[in-house]
Write a structure and sequence with these properties.
alpha/beta, Rossmann fold, 2 domains, 11 helices, about 35% helix, about 15% strand, globular, binds aspartic acid
């Protein structure tokens, strides 16, 4: 199996901000070949034999951690998994000390999830291995953004010109931020929708020169009107601290911002429904929609493995040019 000869001009994957349409498309195209591999009875290629991938997950994760591990194994890399409670950070070791000690064991790639925004970039500045950001605080979750783009492109045949609604707790969502960069770079128009209390003022500016492709909505119906893609987000209570409640009750939230058969009817008849998981059923997503014919949520998970294989391959096979 060959995976194309184009060089990926990045040494790390810290976010989708600043990645060109060509680089994003390179990852999406490569993931298609790995998706095909994942459908075979023998799901393994020797591509990363002899390489070491450390998955350092210092914040809760089910899908991302498992799919990075499966991705590394399907590429024949040696994968080592470390989680928060099983690591010395629970004994008070700093992130940088942990990272430097792991680097001393000469891994090729370190996949890092951390509750602090900027953690992946900090580690990348101090160790030699390629760093993949698997979610840093409220900042970015680039492989989620890529798997979302991959799922959208597969269903719609393109990303350019699509109307994508992202609904929910935008304020705390690294998924929304990665999609804001990735999808606008690929030409989509984004409608961000949330209550006033969960949609930071000036969020469209995150898209930089592409801010005119982003609109802000506080009514679900207006965000969904004619949308091609509807992406629902979980309310991230773990990032809200002890501050005042952002909305009166789950019931009230579901009534105003939840996706149900009634509200989905505002989107295009062939609109797809996405969610990065974990879902809070009955809050942001009605179960009949989550499990309905328009939902591509489990396909997102399947594509997540292929996207992570593509990233591990591009960064771990020694093709990076140390540009950033
Ligand atoms: N799994 C995603 C993340 O880690 C979304 C979420 O947790 O709601 O950001």
């Amino acid at each position: 199996m060959t995976h194309g000869s184009r060089t990926f001009p990045h040494r790390h994957l810290l976010g989708l901000e600043g990645l060109s349409a060509a680089s994003l498309t390179q990852v999406l195209d490569l993931a298609e070949t790995f998706l095909e591999l994942s459908e075979r009875p023998i799901k393994k290629v020797p591509t990363l034999r002899g390489r070491t991938v450390i998955n350092l997950f210092l914040e809760a994760s089910t899908r991302t951690r498992t799919s990075f591990e499966i991705a590394a194994k399907r590429l024949s890399a040696d994968a080592v998994n470390i989680s928060g409670s099983g690591s010395s950070t629970s004994k008070g070791e700093s992130l940088l000390d942990t990272a430097r000690n792991l680097a001393a064991m000469r891994p090729d790639v370190v996949v890092l999830r951390h509750h602090a925004s900027g953690a992946a970039e900090l580690v990348a500045r101090h160790i030699d291995a390629a760093i993949v950001n698997a979610g840093d605080g409220t900042h970015e979750h680039p492989t989620q953004g890529l798997l979302d783009a991959s799922t959208i492109r597969h269903h719609k045949g393109r990303i350019d010109g699509l109307e994508v609604a992202i609904v929910g707790d935008i304020e705390h969502s690294r998924v929304a931020r990665s999609n804001l960069h990735g999808l606008t770079t690929l030409g989509a128009r984004l409608r961000l929708c949330a209550p006033f209390t969960m949609l930071p003022h000036g969020i469209a500016a995150v898209a930089g020169e592409r801010h005119s492709q982003v609109s802000v909505h506080h009514r679900l119906e207006s965000a969904l009107e004619g949308a091609d893609v509807v992406m629902m987000l979980r309310i991230q209570r773990e990032r809200m601290g002890d501050g005042p409640a952002r909305f009166p009750s789950n019931r009230e939230y579901a009534r105003q911002f939840g996706l149900s058969p009634r509200t989905l009817a505002y989107a295009k008849a062939d609109a797809i429904v996405m969610h990065p998981g974990p879902i809070n059923r009955g809050v942001e997503l009605d179960p009949t929609v989550a499990d309905g014919g328009r939902s591509v949520i489990l396909e997102q998970v399947t594509r997540g493995v292929a996207i992570r294989m593509a990233i591990l391959y591009l960064l771990g096979a020694g093709s990076g040019s140390a540009e950033d």
